[in-house]
Amino acid sequence: MLLSLTNTPRDYAWGSTSFLAELEGRSPSGAPEAEVWFGDHPGDPADVDGDGTLDEITGGRLPYLLKLLAAARPLSIQVHPTLAQAQQGWAAESGKALDDPTRNYRDDNHKPELIVALSETFQSLSGLRPVSDTLVLIDALGEGAGVSALRARLSGDADVLRDTISWLLSGDAQSEVDEIIAAVTAAAEGADAGEWNAAIQAIAGVAQTYPGDPGVVVALLMNHVVLRRGEGLFLRAGLLHAYLEGLGVEIMAASDNVLRGGLTPKRIDVPELLTILDSAPAEVPVLRPAADGAVTSYPVPVADFALDRVTLTGGAVARAVAGDTMVLATAGDVAIETVSGEVRTVPVGSAAFVSADEPELRLSGVGEAFIAAPGR
């Protein structure tokens, strides 16, 4: 079975008014367009060309959710649960309605995710920076009372990052937060801060969007990562992160479980966030896989999904179908054909669904497409 898929962009406030329109070669709608979901998740199943939605075809069994993501402003600082944490949280909230504003868990699944940049650059805050490096960074912020208080917190014993995040988000540190944000702004406007300049400039930009938000100072504790087009970033459960700006293809386990820690008007549950947070500091490696012919694969350590990028130069590229598969066109002219003889063109910004009973698919044209499937 071969189906054409579309969906309406979700109008989250952080969405871009131009990225998706430019990708698809159409006029901007004038509204923010943040995400396009290609999946069967009940939160927003994809529309099937002709009639109905994808969940009516699949029964909601897809283990992954594929998206286009277009951020013009920072997303919330957030973290996703492990499978065990999601199941426990879902069970604990079983008495709450799904639209209850105090609910943290929308389903009982984990949400590891992979983002691959489509824009020339894609900025992210990903994972917690080693404390020794953050102490060097904050030396560029001067010696104000707020900065000194942050330095003292980070110089403590035990789990200093978890304790510092708890302090910042507690509501009791607002005066220090305001002083630190002022110091970040001043540093961004002052002399070049060397190796930390890009991070300080990025966080100063976050502060402009969310003045006074404690999440701005939490961002100071995080790795500033800039992807180039085609590079990827895998975010495991428990890892604190926030996308800042850019257009990308995102794939994740089929879940909508998000615990937020700042940079958002939405609900923040600090105790629950701290429960699932992995506060171990570490760099998050950028995925720069080499192409194998026309295909570039992005290896991830989960069984929920696999993602390949296919560069088409006029010849056909055949791929075995191993489970329900999607093909998302991101540039040029892309066509798909199955062994059973069905053929579809896939307009840029839309997708095709190939059911698991098809043994193979063939892509042709001149352009670029991403193939999403269950994990290998």
Automatic annotation (TrEMBL):
The lineage of its organism: Bacteria, Bacillati, Actinomycetota, Actinomycetes, Micrococcales. Its cofactor is Zn(2+). PANTHER family: MANNOSE-6-PHOSPHATE ISOMERASE. Residues 2-130 form the Phosphomannose isomerase type I catalytic domain. This is mannose-6-phosphate isomerase. NCBIfam families: manA. CDD domains: cupin_PMI_type_I_N (cd07011). It catalyses: D-mannose 6-phosphate = D-fructose 6-phosphate. Its EC number is 5.3.1.8. Keywords: Isomerase, Metal-binding, Zinc. It comes from the Bacteria. Belongs to the mannose-6-phosphate isomerase type 1 family. One of its GO terms (molecular function) is mannose-6-phosphate isomerase activity. PROSITE patterns: PMI_I_1.
